[in-house]
Amino acid sequence: MEEKQMRTWAEIDLGALEHNYRALRAMLPAGCRFLGVVKANAYGHGAVEAARRLERLGAEYLAVAGLDEAAELRAAGITSPILTLGPIPAEQAGEAAALNVTATVCHWESAKALSEAARAAGRTLKVHLKADTGMSRLGLVCDGEHTAAAVEEMAAIHALPGLEVEGIFTHFADADEDEAFTMLQFTRFLDVLEALKGRGIVPAIRHCAASAATLKYPCTYLDMVRPGIALYGHYPDPSCVGLDGPGLEPVMRLCTRVIDVRTVPAGATVSYGRTARLEREERLAVLPIGYGDGLFRCLSNRGHISIRGVPRPITGRVCMDLCMVPAGEDVQVGDVAEVYGPAQPVEEAAALAGTISYELLTAVSRRVPRVYHG
Ligand SMILES: *Cc1c(COP(=O)(O)O)cnc(C)c1O
Known about the structure:
six-stranded mixed sheet; 20 strands; single chain; binds pyridoxal-5'-phosphate
């Protein structure tokens, strides 16, 4: 489909992805591996295209949420190691091993089941152990008090046949804001590594830094870093913006095109629920983007869309497929409108929507074609 025929599309600048990769990579010491996180369709940017570019650039590892996302990459010919950041059920152990996908292991019971399933399939499954140092999400609890028991369990998992413990990792809960807690988590993780070493277990790939820690805490890099959002050109938190260094470039520009401009009389109300009323006669531009495309409905009467370089306030409620903005004197049918991009930062829309850029980017729906450049 030609861009001219699309109602709404997302321009994906793979050149910007490349720039961000190189900028982050330049922060790492020699020998430190780079894992590119491409879960959730690469944060809405297209997992296959992002993975292909990262693989070509030399990223040593990729990560997704579960086996279905990993299988999509393998089907597209991606051969890099892929880690599933979440656990996989034992029924998928054989398939994961066959696809050479590395699974995250979060406790003894599931490790035992994976081990049995892998052996039944006649294969060895690569795994990374997950230590929970304070996120309270996935992994063996390593909070000091329970660390010895967790290490005991990890050693037992390490001894299981059918599994190869290639790595170990943890995840920071507040690396963008709370330095003291991040360092506490990091120390807990180092304690786990030390205790394992005492038992002769040294996993080859030890990792903990996602984007925020990669940007802020070089001491946490260990054997590999694990950035996601920074690859797509966004800072995990306003506190990271302007840190010396990488100069990240947004990869996605979400665009739509004015499909109608209408003159609406004074006193008329706009869209469902009649939440906006025009004081005087006004030209309104109709845009073919709505919450069905991922434009949050809570941006009704709050967010802005840029046309001809001017931010125009969303007027009335965002509908499923459409929304309206003032057209001023200049906007014409066919004008391209930028919903997120350099003129209309996604961070601003996220702040107005009470959320983070991650959620807005991953919400760009399947019906929005991705158009690749660079
Ligand atoms: C999503 C995720 C990442 C990437 O996080 P960013 O903040 O996008 O860099 C890294 N590690 C784990 C475990 C994750 O779930």
